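User: Is it possible to get a 3D structure for a protein together with its bound compound? The compound here is LQZAQKY5. I've pasted both below.
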Amino acid sequence: MRSVDAHLAEILAAVRPLDPVVLGLDAALGAILAEDVEAPVALPPFDNSAMDGYAVRAADVAAASEDQPVVLPVTLDVAAGDGARRAVAAGHVTRIMTGAPVPEGADAVVPVEWTDGGVSEVAIRRPAPAGNAIRRSGEDVRPGDVVLSSGAVLGPAQLGIAAGVGRSAVRVRPRPRVLVLSTGAELAEPGTPLAHGQIWESNSFTLVAAVRQAGGEAVRRRAVGDDPAEFKDTLDALLGEADAVITSGGISMGAYEPVKEALAPLGTVRFEKVAMQPGMPQGFGLLGERQVPIFTLPGNPVSSYVSFVLFVKPALAVMRGLPAAPAPTVTATLTSAARSPAGKRSFLRGVLGTDGAVAPVHGQGSHQLAALASANALIVVPEDVTGLTEGEAVEVIPL
Ligand SMILES: Nc1nc2c(c(=O)[nH]1)N[C@H]1C(S)=C(S)[C@@H](COP(=O)(O)OP(=O)(O)OC[C@H]3O[C@@H](n4cnc5c(N)ncnc54)[C@H](O)[C@@H]3O)O[C@H]1N2
Ligand code: MOO
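Assistant: Yes, that's possible. Here is the predicted structure of the complex:
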């Protein structure tokens, strides 16, 4: 049997980052930047007010106090967006709004709360030091600054700064488009009645959600039956739209294994046993001229999700332009004893608490969907360990 590490290494060596494309900011959430984004101008582009109030010369209001307010004429009114270049003379003040350009001559802003709010003249009850409530041009970004470097993950704030420096589109590695195809004649679509011998199809929903969480775009196709020709036709018809394919089911030792039967003859997809529990039967290969990676995951629901976490998610990260790395782990303390088969790396489902303790959930079978849903972590038990005792330190993969 192959080791988990060898299987992952083969996958990570085979997948490539997707070619960069230019995407509008609306479409770029989660994409990885493939260029440096530079600011063409300073941010803020001009000195502006941080508060609603009055732009003054600090010297003119230095003597202001609650008992003896300084009363000055209001000769200008500047709203945010005011495009005129204005100036204010000594002894005069400008009513100013947050974000409005500070007129030339003014060197401080007095918040409206320190005044009587006058419109033609204003009584100012507190002095404002020079620079008060003024946001200086360039104090966020200087012209030419690289505000985002190639390789940055575009989250909400990163899209914000891209827009903030005037960009409507960015060059990125796109989110991989992943085709999720489940197989099995026993699978009924959720929402339809269940005949004897059938179960509701669940893997594709888990895998589609997992792809999205991993920064990909998923296309889900209704389960295909146990006919290898039907499976191959469906795959061929949809491959052109996909950057990667995930299948579930149909790869083990049974009489009806459509995925294995359809793909094994191509010679480009390898099926093998990986020394892990759950998720022993695995397949991986590259399809067609575009060398589209295909992950043929086992059908048992826990097995397919664990396989996704261990193998597909790191591969999608590489396709997105992120560094190749196995699923990250944290160290936790086991709250009860656990067993594991010899010679296989186990991934027990567990609940990881904020206190750093992890408890294996009840129901460790690879078909036990509800137990999986109650877990938030995988407890990693090395190949050479068959028993863990309460209080032991273990490595855990948070889900
Ligand atoms: N003789 C052997 N039998 C099995 C072996 C073996 O080594 N020798 N391995 C077992 C292991 S381990 C696994 S895992 C499964 C993997 O089998 P397949 O990948 O071929 O999957 P199926 O047989 O199609 O399905 C397995 C199981 O999962 C259910 N399933 C499948 N697809 C879905 C879906 N989309 N949603 C919900 N549930 C699904 C299916 O009904 C089966 O119960 O093989 C073992 N057998
Ligand atoms: O390895 Mo299978 O994935 O146990 O259920």
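The mean pLDDT is 96. Residues 277-280, 298, 300, 303, 366 surround molybdate ion (ligand 2) (CB under 6 Å).
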